[in-house]
Amino acid sequence: MPSDQRPLIEMERVWVMRGEKIVLRDVSLRIGLGEHVAILGPNGSGKSTLIKTITRECYPLVREGSRMAIFGQERWNIFDLRPLLGVVSNDWMVLCTRQITGREAVESGFFGSVGVQPYHRITPEIERQTAAILALLEIPHLAGRTVTEMSSGEARRVLLARALVHDPRALVLDEPSNSLDVFAQHEFREIMRKLARADIGIILVTHHLADIIPEIDRVILMRDGRIVADGRKQDVLTAAALAKLFGLPVDLTRRAGYYHLW
Hints:
The chain is of the alpha/beta class. The protein is built from nine helices and eleven strands.
């Protein structure tokens, strides 16, 4: 199969441990290039570990019949893989504790660093691409502002810009609306929609149903380290399935392409 037709992710009977605890249990999953997929589940369901396994921060246990490939390849140099996956997680924001400007945060994505270091060479092409990404995400006004002076919503959009610098083949968004107020959540979801319509594949991990933008048509439900449902959004997102997933009675409504839980 040509490399550009291979799935983004193939997992067969994958188990993952973190410390002494098994976090993923017998996970089989296939996500194609260009797909928009949401992975939904309560806290502790294994969603973030699944993402860290995809990005090679965690590794599966060696077991008979277990297999995992990314872009059709089972072994990767992590430095070759990183430019292909644009990852947005809260982990990176924790590292931004010094005076890094929005421009420097985005430029640091070219080097895989936290901020721009004295030995980094910022070329005119890097400057051009940085300006273009800031404009795409409608945040050029944040270029000179330090991350510590930004709101949570502004910092999250800068982090998204940083993830886009290598023109990745897919975006991996891990709980992107955490710590955002209602307005910032709306803004971030509108940016996600813009990127989805630009044919950038999106893998969204969340426990907030309203994060699932209308362009996402496949939903995976996770609980206790297992995939308990995987299919079309309208088939998977039912009140009965979500009540079982979150362990309490719920009401489900749909408005303007978004689903809401009560």
